[in-house]
Amino acid sequence: MARGTRRTVQTCTMAVMSTVQIEVDDEVLERLEKLGPQESPARLEFIATAIRRALWELEEQHTARAYALQPDSDEAYIDPEAWEP
User: Fold this and answer.
1) Torsion of CA 31, 37, 42, 45, to 10 degrees
2) What share of the chain is helix, strand, coil (3-state, %, to 5)?
3) C-alpha to C-alpha distance for 56 and 63, rounded to whole angstroms
4) Alpha-carbon 14 to chain mean position
5) Which among 2, 68, 76, 77 has the fewest CB atoms less than 10 Å away?
6) What's the pTM?
7) Within a 10 A sphere around the Cβ of 32, how many other Cβ atoms?
8) How open is the CA angle 49-53-55, to the nearest 5 degrees?
């Protein structure tokens, strides 16, 4: 390569995605039409984000139930003074 020339390297990341077909009632569809994004890519991301949030909430509920069944003992206390800044 000659001095002073630059080489550009492009990378491409591919994600494998699955298609999920869902049915919604008229009220949900009407609200989506009214409030959600109208463009296809933005609408797909909107729905995927809603699913991620719902799954996160379910995971949080599952974790809360697990801690309720088996709470931490007093021995799990960690002295905050022992932590380094």
Assistant:
1) -30
2) 55, 0, 45
3) 10
4) 18
5) 2
6) 0.62
7) 16
8) 115
